[in-house]
Design brief:
This protein has 212 residues and is α/β, with parallel strands linked by helices. It contains ten helices and five strands. The chain has a single domain, classed as 3-Layer(aba) Sandwich (Rossmann fold). Strands 2-3-1-4-5 form a five-stranded parallel sheet, sandwiched between helices. The radius of gyration is 17 Å and the shape is globular. The relative contact order is 0.22.
Length: 212
């Protein structure tokens, strides 16, 4: 069921659990946009900051301990251009958050990661979803998706999940895998992608059902 008013599905996922695939299936089902890497381009256009800086910060931070040492919980503020911290990692995140909030006023969409659930926590039409699967299933999925060895898949998953956990903690002050952060937590391995989509669709039907 597609609600009559704008809504947002904020999907958080463990590496290999099929989050992007499921997000794409939902976007096709509802004929709405899906934002992931595309968000960097929109934030660049909004801020005037070169998109390459967003992408560079996004990638470089995976190889540092910044998120493990510090914390900068998002509070909605933007650093002005005249400030020396205008292109800091925190301000780049702030502009991505600004874009997500503005998009929610204009359209329904799906956002993958980016702490979308936290950024839009005050939006009554946002549904937050955490997708996960067993380590064995995630490894199998990554091996198949990227055509890599089991050892490579395991190493990649460990790196990505650690990064996503640290990123989430840094910007929200919360634990990434805590089910209390989300409306739905779904093991994608147990029921398969199509039934996960059906389950989310059913939840939307209940959430947005109008009282007669």
């Amino acid at each position: 069921m597609k609600p009559n008013e704008n809504f947002v599905l904020a999907i958080t996922r463990t590496c290999g659990s099929g989050g992007t695939t499921i997000g794409t299936m939902l976007a096709n089902k509802y004929q709405i946009n899906l934002y992931d890497k595309k968000l960097l381009q929109l934030a660049s256009e909004d801020s005037g900051i070169n998109e390459a800086l967003f992408a560079k910060a996004d990638e470089a931070i995976k190889n540092t301990i910044l998120y493990k040492v510090y914390q900068s919980v998002y509070n909605g503020e933007l650093i002005p251009p005249e400030s020396g911290n205008f292109v800091s990692d925190s301000n780049l995140f702030n502009y991505q958050a600004k874009v997500l909030k503005e998009l929610a006023q204009k359209e329904s969409y799906i956002v993958i990661g980016r702490c979308g659930d936290f950024i839009l926590k005050d939006n009554p039409n946002m549904v937050s979803i955490f997708l996960y699967a067993s380590e064995e299933e995630c490894i199998r999925h990554e091996m198949e998706r990227s055509d890599i060895s089991e050892k490579q898949a395991k190493r990649h998953i460990k790196k990505m999940d650690r990064y996503r956990s640290d990123y989430y903690k840094f910007h929200t002050g919360k634990k990434w895998k805590n089910s209390e952060n989300y409306d739905l937590s779904i093991n994608t391995e147990k029921i398969g992608y199509e039934k996960v989509v059906a389950l989310i669709d059913e939840y939307l039907s209940f959430k947005f059902q109008k009282e007669e």
